[in-house]
Amino acid sequence: MVEPANTVGIPLNHAALLKDELDIVIPTIRNLDFLEMWRPFLQPYHLIIVQDGDPSKTIAVPEGFDYELYNRNDINRILGPKASCISFKDSACRCFGYMVSKKKYIFTIDDDCFVAKDPSGKAVNALEQHIKNLLCPSSPFFFNTLYDPYREGADFVRGYPFSLREGVSTAVSHGLWLNIPDYDAPTQLVKPKERNTRYVDAVMTIPKGTLFPMCGMNLAFDRDLIGPAMYFGLMGDGQPIGRYDDMWAGWCVKVICDHLGLGVKTGLPYIYHSKASNPFVNLKKEYKGIFWQEDIIPFFQSAKLSKEAVTVQQCYLELSKLVKEKLSPIDPYFDKLADAMVTWIEAWDELNPATKA
Ligand SMILES: O=c1ccn([C@@H]2O[C@H](COP(=O)(O)OP(=O)(O)O[C@H]3OC[C@H](O)[C@H](O)[C@H]3O)[C@@H](O)[C@H]2O)c(=O)[nH]1
Ligand SMILES: [Mn+2]
Fold first, then answer.
1. Would you list which residues are glycosylated (predicted)?
2. Which of 143, 176, 237, 261 could form a cystine bridge with 88, CB 3.0-4.6 A?
3. Looking at ligand 1, which residue's alpha carbon is closest to its atom 2?
4. Residues 10 and 123: beta-carbon distance below 8 Å
């Protein structure tokens, strides 16, 4: 049986790393009491809360946290017609927080994710581990069998080319989950009682040319390196699928990271995911995605970006053209999604003029 950590009595982390260079983005439809458990680790940081659903509802934020909160009215006011690219009634709305942030780093976490315990029983400061992952290089061009070579007590193994040991900048740190794993609805239905109790003490770079299913539950990234590609695709209200927002972003991000020579890591840190969402509701949301992805994955595996695409925005706009050309025949949704990808970049550049290509 795995349990969340008890963080009562842990002193506030006054020496919080990157305190003024990192925003924490939380999509929510609930009160944010879960922050109480994270207080020692997260209170020094600025929160960007993206309130989904009914904007007239008041979201309670525990005392002492520094935050800005955006509801649907705010998103519409700030983006005007471009707000159409931000999902409604789906956690995909969180990407609005990435866009309005002015910081170099983002950590995004769901409001049903708590502090995990490592095998020694120690509370896991997930944000601290994400920061370590992001500040350390990645090794996407050759797999190190002793996992993260830059970690204390590890290194590159024999046979690892010295020419590759400098590594590349890390754009994404993808954390994992104890207790409720991020399973798709069919798996949830078949294994309703399965809990993840396995704490694997490893961080790995996902090799170049390999895609992965990115979960937005416990995720950090370098906004300057890859922010414009972190569009959580059109889901929720009025859309034919849900729960593929982070997956879509992850596939676009990985193709672009591979093209630009950036690294994506997965593994530590773990959070404790407390709530299984309803598998039947999830099945309805995921249904089309489950068979569309059999075409989507080969599309991303074969997607080629031009050598002229040297910024994330240029890569992303090339990807959106390929989506329109190659995926729209599957369903008109992809035509709409390709357009939304362009709108996202326009909105991003409008709110972040300095990053315009
Ligand atoms: O309409 C909504 C529903 C939820 N949220 C917020 O999104 C976070 C995730 O919601 P929840 O924990 O209820 O769903 P899960 O099934 O566990 O979410 C996983 O799968 C879907 C996504 O990929 C998500 O990232 C995964 O964690 C939570 O903070 C809700 O408050 C929302 O904003 N709008
Ligand atoms: Mn959840």
1. 158
2. 237
3. 90
4. yes
- Do 124 and 177 meet the contact criterion of CB atoms below 8 Å apart? no
Per-residue CA distances from 311 to 81, 226, 303 (Å)? 25, 9, 16
Q: What would the two tokens of residue 227 be?
A: 């922010």
The rounded Å distance from CA 278 to ligand 2 centre is 10
Picking from 70, 2, 54, 30, the residue whose alpha carbon sits closest to that of residue 277 is 30
DSSP 103: S
Residue closest by Cα to atom 20 of ligand 1:
243
Whose alpha carbon is nearest atom 11 of ligand 1?
277
pLDDT digits (tens, 9 = 90+) for 14-53: 789 999 999 999 999 999 999 999 999 999 999 999 999 9
Q: How far is CA 341 from CA 170, 265, 351, in A?
A: 23, 24, 15
Mutate to test the pocket of ligand 1, among 110, 111, 275 (most ligand atoms within 8 A of CB): 110
Measured in Å, residue 21 CA sits from the centre of ligand 2 at 27
CATH tag, 22-351: 3.90.550
Query: pLDDT tens digits, residue range 70-124?
Result: 999 999 999 999 999 999 999 999 999 999 999 999 999 999 999 999 999 999 9
Local mean pLDDT, 10-residue blocks, the chain (357 residues) = 93 90 98 96 98 96 98 98 97 98 98 97 97 98 97 97 98 98 96 97 98 98 98 95 97 98 98 93 95 97 98 98 98 98 98 77
For the question of an ipTM over 0.95, the answer is yes
Ligand 1: distance of its center to the CA of 91 in Å? Answer: 5
Q: What is the rounded distance in angstroms from the CA atom of residue 148 to the CA atom of residue 303?
A: 28
Distance CA(58)–CA(53), nearest Å, equals: 11
Whole-number average pLDDT of the chain: 96
Q: State the alpha helices, DSSP H only, in 81-171.
A: 95-100, 126-135
